[in-house]
């Protein structure tokens, strides 16, 4: 018997960030990769927020998020009591934010109404999975956090960030997409529905990754 759920609400397209204009009178915590802090893209995201919101930015994010960083994030969050958490970044940022939101709700009983993921790269699909990988800094052992409660409530799939990624990031994340699609296709728990998605992802990678990595003048006009 095949069984699965897909509870994360997805907004996709160039106007997907308009969803952020719908929040007002909220305490919003934005968790993002450090290099985004002063970027035009984050400035644009901030401009979409209603002035009645209290918005705080947290950038203490590192690759392969250590458990200690999750603890620091929870302590920081405890001081501002956010009602909305928005994770903007790659897989590590989203995984760390999952841990912060999950334990904030479970251990601190915080009233987080909505946890939103805005991926800046393609690849892991962390924004719609019920997994997060956290690292023990002392032993360098990675621990999976597997629980439907870590799923973001919403995912905003905007091309804003991926279009401005450096070519090497585009290449690495594109290959990550391919690897995940191949893994899904040969997985023992695969079924006709997941196979269809995996096959489509594989076809899209082969067609569009070379163009995204090194677009021609014509392709740039279309993007």
Describe the structure.
- By secondary structure, this protein is an alpha/beta fold.
- It folds into two domains: 9-164, Rossmann fold, CATH 3.40.50.1970; 166-223.
- It contains seven helices and eight strands; from the N terminus they run ββαβαβαββββαααα.
- The chain has helices at residues 40-47, 67-80, 91-106, 159-162, 167-186, 192-213, 217-222, and strands at 9-12, 27-32, 54-58, 84-89, 114-119, 131-136, 141-146, 154-157.
- It has a six-stranded parallel β-sheet. Strands 6-7 form a two-stranded antiparallel ribbon.
- Helix 2 packs across helix 3 and helix 5 (167-186) packs antiparallel against helix 6.
- The model has no long low-confidence stretch (mean pLDDT 90).
Tag the structure with descriptive keywords:
single chain, 223 residues, alpha/beta, Rossmann fold, 2 domains, 6-stranded parallel beta sheet, two-stranded antiparallel sheet, 8 strands, 40% helix, globular
What gap, in angstroms, lies between the N and C termini? 42 Å
- Briefly, what CATH class of the largest domain? Alpha Beta
Mean pLDDT: 90
* Number of discrete domains: 2
CATH architecture of the largest domain: 3-Layer(aba) Sandwich
Computed CA radius of gyration, to the nearest angstrom: 18 Å
What is the strand tally?
A: 8
**Helix proportion range:** 40-55%
What strand order characterises the main sheet? Answer: 1-8-5-4-2-3
Proportion of beta-strand residues: 15-25%
Tell me the series of helices and strands, N- to C-terminal: EEHEHEHEEEEHHHH
Given as residue ranges, the uncertain stretches (5+ residues, pLDDT < 50) are none
C-alpha geometry: globular
